[in-house]
């Protein structure tokens, strides 16, 4: 029987790249996202790779909706074997100007939703004695940058939560790992480039050169395919002892 994976934020960007690689490798996919054509994206991937798919636009600000998302995954696909917490939002602002509502929204979507999804999936993974939880954190889960107080806090929190899940899941063959990419050219990052340009009074090209990629030894955006392949490895049957770890794909940023 094919294994099933729920990937939050999987109708665009990194999540869509991960979903595509998993579908290519025979996984059933529960897609999640807010794109208007999300159901169509899920259906097209399913048809292309001959796998079963589902789609949800669950509100990750609502813990009950997240629980229902997991329940829908099990009812539609038969199980939840892999949970990939990928959905995230960003906002860039100096601390003194940071809107409270944006701070709370970033913490809710980038960190709290990880907990609620894992909590809802836990009983199924525990019962089947198999589970793979993969949390897409960020290099900002281990390093800080100015003007990103909410995002850095949330991503650091995800790394800590990942370790706790690994310890609690160990007796039940539930592994938990975090992937921490550097900058990936997604719609989220495109918006960051614009925000950083505004915050620093720089052109967008100057933002790339002087702010975004300056900390990376390899001056390139991280390929989505590299993140997807890492997630696929961590989801595998033989990844039993790979747990509680943080995998950086950051062009050497955190080596400094």
Short structural description:
This protein is of the alpha/beta class and 256 residues long. It has helices spanning 13-24, 38-49, 63-77, 100-128, 149-169, 187-200, 204-212, 224-235; strands at residues 4-7, 28-32, 53-56, 82-85, 131-136, 174-181, 246-249. The protein is globular and about 55 Å long.
What does this structure look like?
- One of its GO terms (molecular function) is 3-hydroxybutyrate dehydrogenase activity.
- Keywords: Oxidoreductase.
- Helix content is 48%, strand content 14%.
- With 256 residues, the protein is an alpha/beta fold.
- The protein has a seven-stranded parallel sheet with strand order 3-2-1-4-5-6-7, sandwiched between helices.
Which secondary structure elements does this structure contain, and how are they paired or packed?
Layout: E1 4-7, H1 13-24, E2 28-32, H2 38-49, E3 53-56, H3 63-77, E4 82-85, H4 100-128, E5 131-136, H5 149-169, E6 174-181, H6 187-200, H7 204-212, H8 224-235, E7 246-249
Parallel strand pairs: 1-2, 1-4, 2-3, 4-5, 5-6, 6-7
- How much beta, percentage-wise? 5-15%
Shape, principal axes of CA atoms: globular
Q: Alpha-carbon distance between the termini?
A: 45 Å
Q: Helical residue percent?
A: 40-55%
Q: Spatial order of the strands in the main sheet?
A: 3-2-1-4-5-6-7
Radius of gyration equals 18 Å
Number of helices: 8
Low-confidence stretches: none
What distinguishing features does this structure have?
alpha/beta, 256 residues, 7-stranded parallel sheet
